[in-house]
Give the backbone structure.
Amino acid sequence: MNLNKVSLEARHISLSYGSNEVLKDVNLKIEPGEFFALLGPSGSGKSTLLRLIAGFNQHQRGELLIDGKDITGTPPHLRNLGMVFQNYALWPHMTVWDNVAFGLVERKEPKESLRNKVGAALELVGLSQYAQRRPSQLSGGQQQRVALARTVVIEPKLLLLDEPLSNLDKNLRVQMREELKNLQRTLGLTTIFVTHDQEEAMTTADRMAVLDKGVLQQVGTATALFDFPANRFVAGFVGTANLMSGQITRINGETLTFLADGIGELVFPCGVGKPALGHATMAFRPHTVSISVRDENVDASRTWLTGRVESSEFLGESSRYRVRVGDMVVVANQPHYSGLSLFPTGADVRLGIESTQVRFLHD
């Protein structure tokens, strides 16, 4: 297949429906051949942005460029973009072969070329032997592969995926996202993937953008967004985070003092980032918190809180505790090993916060 790697750039894109601003001054650059995810909750604008790229809706302000050329006024059928929808939209009365060939037939592709391209697309997704079946005779995962083959057979400039895995059960979803990633790597096709599932985005995408209420919150790799969230929303949406509101009251050469609402003063060594005095959110991940009994010797390199276990969950690889500390509940994950018993509800415990894993966010 002759697939080109193209870039996509959104410059100051804004879109409103009446007084409802759906996208607000979105600036985004997607590199050639990149697998890029748009991540956010329902109503964040991620699907609207994808449909805008496809040409199904129109922004009022800004520019949308493919390889530096503004396609703002170009109708969808002339953009040569491939899109896979959540429900696959396969023709039920057509065979797998005819579904995949449909776009090439519409373009009046010569018969021999059409035969070669459809055969190659079906082989690519491992469905050559199912060519004469109807969609109703296929599993959900196989139907999705047909939708992918039908899309890539037209040799699009971009592949757009709108929640393509959401109709599959969990185990099949994990398998299909791996297949999707492998297919994208094989084709080298610039791909934009919309999902509300953070795990899906983190395991497939080279980079991702997090949106909330039409505003682009942060762009980066999964590890960058997880380890260094730009604000409170990203910290809470990408992974699980403990978020404490309060005030940074003092910073000297070696330490930082944080007055946590409902808890009190916490002192940390000055570490990552450049926090400023004033209101801030302290963010730290549950897996970085150690938990021990109240009278146990503790690691002096951590900042320790005392609390009481409100509840616990056994998750297999770890146990998750919700611990009441002052006016706040802190979540702590403890790796599980055979023979390790859970702290009971009501147990008095200490929580150790690893200072290098704390982020102070100003937003």
